[in-house]
User: Which sequence fits this backbone?
């Protein structure tokens, strides 16, 4: 018979992780993207231990920076938005 032995496709789309963890997954993707951009620019990224509204701190050290310690600093608060997928039935 044609198609014998082939796996059938599920009737519902597959979700990665738990349905209620979608915002956690979005945050993880966002931070990974930021880390890749910072690494390509030669920056160092750090995550503060205590959450005071700053999610990541980015620093870059170079002689061309005018600060006395030659370090440029940027504190970033990450935001994530999106529409969660329809709940499985």
Assistant:
């Amino acid at each position: 018979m044609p198609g014998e032995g082939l796996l059938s496709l599920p009737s519902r789309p597959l979700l990665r992780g738990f349905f209620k963890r979608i915002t956690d997954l979005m945050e993880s993707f966002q931070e990974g993207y930021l880390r890749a951009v910072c690494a390509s620019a030669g920056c160092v990224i750090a995550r503060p231990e205590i959450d005071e509204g700053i999610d990541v701190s980015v620093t870059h050290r170079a002689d061309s920076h005018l600060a006395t310690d030659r370090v440029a600093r940027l504190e970033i608060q990450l935001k994530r938005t999106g529409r969660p997928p329809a709940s499985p039935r």
